[in-house]
Amino acid sequence: MKFLKILYVQVLIGIVLGILTGLFFPSFYAAGKLISDTFINMIKMVIAPIIFFTIVLGITGAGDMKKVGRVGGKGIIYFEIVSTFALILGLFVANFIRPGNGVVLNERASDKVAEYVSKGQEMNWAEFFAHIVPENIIGAFAKGDIIQILFFSILFAIGLMKLKTSADGLINSFTTINKALFNILGIVMKLSPIGAFGGMTYTMGKFGIKSLVVLGNFMLTFYITVFIFIFVVLNAIAKYYGFSLIKLLAYLKEEIFIVIGASSSEAVLPSVMQKLEKAGCDKTIVGLIIPTGYSFNLDGTTIYLSMAVLFLAQVFNIDLSISQQITIVAILMITSKGAAGVTGSGFIVLASTLSALKIIPLEGLALLIGVDRFMSEARSVTNFIGNAVATVVIAKSEKGVDVEVYKSVVGG
Question: Which CATH architecture best describes the domain 2-411?
Answer without folding.
Answer: Orthogonal Bundle (1.10)
